[in-house]
Amino acid sequence: MGKVSKGAKCSVIGCGERATCSIASQKVLSTMKVEPEGRRAYLCEKHYKEFKKLTRMDRKVERWRYSLI
Description:
With 69 residues, the chain is an alpha+beta fold.
């Protein structure tokens, strides 16, 4: 059982909702105001959707980069 299934709270400053996913804290720190717990940052559904919107182009570039090899 992971921390999300145990009821971890969202790591975004000022949010106290229940987390739905965990992401590497290095990826989240560069885009959002997060207080990470160790190597992972926990996001609620609303903030995870915002994270995906903010990192859409980065993910697309990574896919391109590996598809050319």
